[in-house]
Amino acid sequence: MKAAVIHEYGGPLAIEELPVRPLDQYEILVKVISCGVCHTDLHACNGDWPVKSKMPLIPGHEAIGLVAAMGDDVKSVKEGDVVGVPWLYSACGCCEFCLTGWETLCYEQQNGGYSVNGGFAEYVIADSRYVAHFPSHVNFSEMAPIICAGVTVYKGLKETEVSAGEWVAISGIGGLGHLGVQYAKAMGFQVAAIDISNEKLEMARKLGADIIVNALEHDPGDFLKKQTGGMHGVLVTAVTPVAFSQGLSALRRKGTLSLNGLPPGSFDLPIFDTVLNRITVRGSIVGTRKDMQEAIEFAVEGKVRAQVTPAKLEDINELFGKMTKGEIEARIVLEISGS
Ligand code: NAD
Ligand code: ZN
Ligand code: ZN
User: Fold this and answer.
1) Rounded distance between C-alpha atoms, residue 179 and residue 197, angstroms
2) Which of 57, 243, 295, 319 fits a disulfide with 238 by CB distance 3.0 to 4.6 angstroms?
3) Is the whole model's pTM more than 0.90, yes or no?
4) Nearest Cα to 231, choosing from 253, 264, 207, 259?
5) pLDDT in tens, 285-328
6) Which string of b and e fits 202-230 if b means at least 16 CB within 10 Å?
7) Domains of the chain as residue ranges with CATH
8) Phi-psi group of 101: left, alpha or beta (phi > 0 → left; psi -120 to 50 → alpha; rest → beta)
């Protein structure tokens, strides 16, 4: 099979021909139709995080495709089913987190396109017990981004504990954020969008944002507090630490800052304000299999729709260059095989 492979952090990806290994009992072979390109893939290839990705690596954790072969004990899918191969590639199933529906926190978890090979390839092996399930009639390229970006912002929004009618801000209107605006509207929230690009903010407006603010032109905290009294929740998907401080300052009392973005670094948490204003700061990592089902439901019903630009596997180095400069609009999806 053809795959995009990286051999060293910061290095370019090479298009290589690789064998497909035999399947274990619960594994399936998925013929990849499309795979979205997440900013996490870029972090993985750069070795940005304290926990490093394996090398060499086939990145990609937004692959959607067809079940092409199955291990002996696979029960939950059949050949030809449409499945997604997510970041939460597998977990132990037995620990305190797995037992309480928090398999995203399992210490034994494997991560697609990070600790195991992912979807920038013609075929990817998946654990049948952890794949995302889609109906057969879906638009593959529009569904691919739901497998990471969609479920991540959906879960991140739930973690703000904002209620219908209340204000939530989405900071960073990229692959995650443009879906975040749509999920937030579909969940009944009033939505503010924060970015540093006017084009991205215009897109947010078209996707339903009630207020937009360019963080290079206004202080988002001052601006949003003046307009609304402050946000009940802020979901930060941005890739710069300053956006986290700005998000914090946009909260009203009792507000929650939900962290999705993963730039290397940290930000200051003022103790006095956090205590006196009863602020909650909460990390949020992708979503469980149940969150995935719900996130897919919104997309299948047409309540959220990923804005996608198709690209080829061979374009990946150029795409990462553009992503580094913040020049990608919404989501790029690699179209790998015809369905
Ligand atoms: P992206 O490159 O598509 O989007 C990032 C956006 O942030 C861009 O629109 C950019 O203009 C904007 N931005 C940059 N600086 C900003 C600032 N100061 N204020 C506001 N906006 C700013 O990236 P993506 O694929 O959406 O991923 C975003 C981040 O989320 C990455 O760090 C990625 O690793 C992380 N991520 C986390 C999870 C999770 O489970 N927590 C899942 C997927 C991705
Ligand atoms: Zn991702
Ligand atoms: Zn576990």
Assistant:
1) 17
2) 243
3) yes
4) 253
5) 999 999 999 999 999 999 999 999 999 999 999 999 999 999 99
6) ebbeebebbbbbbbeeeebbebbbeebeb
7) 2-147+287-335 (3.90.180.10), 150-283 (3.40.50.720)
8) left
